[in-house]
Design goal:
This protein is about 0% helix and about 60% strand. The protein is mostly beta strands. The mean pLDDT is about 95.
Length: about 120
């Protein structure tokens, strides 16, 4: 079993910053990749950023957000700067996990989501 624990969401004014964190724990051999997705009201869930060997970003957040991963702690961070009201959404952590019970496969796990609200 793998658990994802997210933190760092909240309410900020436009132009402010937040730092999201998500740690994967459980019967983990490795976490080859982690990422952040978000879902705004009335919209589909979309990629924000992912990191494996390198990082990828949605065009809408390039230059403002930075994703990083602490491999030793199985933790992914999302530093969000210059936040805009359009960034308001529930942010979901995603982890691609290689578990001890299924060493030859990678399973994707999702966090419960953390609310990010940016006021104007």
């Amino acid at each position: 079993q793998v658990d994802l624990v997210e933190s760092g969401g909240g309410l900020v004014q436009a132009g402010g910053s937040l730092n999201l964190a998500c740690q994967a724990s459980g019967s983990i051999l490795s976490v080859p990749g982690m990422g952040w997705y978000r879902q705004a009201p009335g919209k589909q869930r979309e990629l924000v950023a992912e990191i494996q060997y390198d990082a990828t970003y949605a065009d809408s957040v390039k230059g403002r957000f930075a994703i990083s991963m602490d491999i030793a702690r199985n933790t992914v961070y999302l530093q969000m700067n210059s936040l805009k009201p359009e960034d308001t959404a529930v942010y979901y952590c995603k982890a691609d996990v290689r578990t001890r019970s299924a060493v030859w496969t990678i399973t994707t796990y999702w966090g419960q989501g953390t609310q990010v609200t940016v006021s104007s």
